[in-house]
Amino acid sequence: MTLQDIGDIVHEDGGTLWRRKPGATSSFEEFLHSREHWLELFQEMDWNPWRKEELAPQMGRADQVGEEWERAEPDFRPLTERQVSARIAAIRRRVRVEGDKDEARWEQDKARYDAERERARYALLEREAIQANLERELAGHRSGALLPAMSGDRRTKEILELEAKREQSAAELQRLSIIVGDREEVVDSDGKLPADRRRWNVIWYRHLRIEWVGELNESIAAQQLKIAGMKDREEKSTLRVHLGSDQRRMETLLAIPRLEAEQMCADCYTPAFQHTSGGDIYETRPCPNWPIHAARMERVRETLRSVAERKSPTVPEPPKPQPLATLPGELPIAEVIERLSELRAEHPDAVVRKGRSSRWEIWPGDEPER
């Protein structure tokens, strides 16, 4: 009997044969779909764990369909527990070997770290973001979509100024590109390449995004509850502004799809597309390593420091008086006499007072009562 003769019983997919188990009701097409859908669901719940309960019925159905089918090759034998363990051990060894290779490469590449080239790379990335923003602004003015109420003369002037800035920016881009060369080959002080850092950054961004969503959920719920019981209109209006801001940021975070390492900034825990303005203001930010942005933030910090220094310094509170020594309240009398004799020799004018927790405290003779 050939495969064609039993086509209704045995099905082929990618070189493997499958058949329904007795009592199964799913079709082969549903089986193939369930395998893909299971992986999609797993990745979705890993990226958005708050959807686990919502997606649980779909995951359950995919599991059920998967259990209704089995391999149909005549010589196929499922892996034993020992074989599964051996494969897992082999995977771990391979991961460990790759990790050791990376560690050795990083150690070796520390020698070719170039601080000037690293700074130029940061400047190049920032300049590319600036150039993209200039292009976007120019396109908006030329189409009239940006600030539609602007007068024609003013818009013409804006376009000319933006074109001049774009030309200057392009020249700076060219200069930096020569210094940097292949940006993906610029190592940091630890010898790591941008690709190395992105692999770690996407893991951390996933963790941070989950944490942010949890915090926003709690904040939104608390503000909604507070607004519901609030009577003061002015306070309620202020709180609604904060609530709206949290809700918009939540919407932005939830809309971010599952990211791959290549989509991350190599230098901070931020998706690369969020470094260019024009997106949602709640999740758009420059990289803190970019020189122009870093200088601007340092000026802000310096201003805040200056303001703080101009304020009259607060007078520190005098230190709280402390006893010269303390004795537990449950010591044998002989030991108490011995300790008091020693303290009397050191502090002849001291007095004994009862302290907290049945302790005895030795205070200077001129110390006022507390």
In short:
This protein folds into 5 domains: 10-71, no CATH class; 81-112; 113-191; 200-311, no CATH class; 325-363, no CATH class. The chain contains 9 helices and 6 strands, in the order E-E-H-H-E-H-H-H-H-H-H-E-H-E-E.
How widely separated are the two ends? Answer: 103 Å
Main sheet strand line-up:
1-2-3
**How big is the Rg?**
35 Å
Count of DSSP H/I helices: 9
Q: Which segments are poorly predicted (pLDDT under 50) over 5 or more consecutive residues?
A: 1-7
| SSE succession | EEHHEHHHHHHEHEE
Q: What level of helicity do the residues show?
A: 55-70%
Give the CA-based shape. extended
**What proportion of the residues form beta strands (DSSP E)?**
5-15%
User: Structural class, judged by helices and strands?
Assistant: mainly alpha
Question: What's the pLDDT, averaged over the residues?
Answer: 89
Region (Disordered): 308-329, 350-370
Give structural notes.
With 370 residues, the chain is mainly alpha-helical. The chain has five domains: 10-71, no CATH class; 81-112; 113-191; 200-311, no CATH class; 325-363, no CATH class. Helix content is 58%, strand content 6%. The chain has nine helices and six strands. It has helices at 28-47, 52-67, 81-109, 115-143, 152-180, 194-228, 233-255, 291-310, 333-346; strands spanning 10-13, 16-20, 69-71, 325-327, 351-354, 360-363. The chain has a three-stranded antiparallel β-sheet. The chain has a three-stranded antiparallel β-sheet with strand order 4-6-5, covered by helices on one side. Strand 5 (351-354) and strand 6 (360-363) form a beta hairpin. The radius of gyration is 35 Å and the shape is extended. The protein starts with 9 loop residues before the first strand and ends in a 7-residue tail after the last strand. 9% of the residues are buried. The model is unreliable at 1-7 (pLDDT under 50).
